[in-house]
């Protein structure tokens, strides 16, 4: 399997894995429970998956919901204590003897869209996530900007949300990152729920809010419209800063294509370019963007290493 990469999408409860050849989407996906609390068991599981392959792959490529500290190589992965604070790359390379490439899941999503999805015909692709949280990844020439890890593309964090929408004052809610006023606090699934509770004094999940919005319910419509106004300026600024000409949207909320279209409607007029084409669009790279993006990043990394050799 010299021309094959074994790729992983690692979450707090499930590890998804598949092999991929260069230029192609990953193959059949296998799923395993994540040994989230045991570092040794985590490494042993990855090793056993490799051992079960008919031939050894050229490398391992990993997508995970965390950040690689570019200075230390150590991971910040709050939902997987087994690998939080560890140098997983070094640990796995020592155990398996294979090159290991690790990237944030939003970064992998962005690369997947740049290589296989809505960004195929664009140079600068800014992939955004509207899921449990709000995140993003930035790609130029189909390659990540922050190849060594770090926080590029993380537009969901920073004290930038407007304090007033119309005549209504909106407080800066505290964010899990330690700041207040982040887009993440009002635009992901939990954020939409928080915003609805503030505006209307009732607890309602994001799917129910969106269903109400589609049905024309006044309270749900006010919540969604307020959310759109709160995120529009920060996202437009991020697009101006990056020069992105396409912004594929992924995550659970982005499966609602009407919501994605509404985001585009409020964001595009605030950008300097004001393109005529849709700017914020639904993702199209398939069901496994984490695996596909990890594989693409892996092959790019191997190519760079070969060129330097």
From TrEMBL:
It comes from the Bacteria. Belongs to the ROK (NagC/XylR) family. This is ROK family protein. It comes from Martelella lutilitoris.
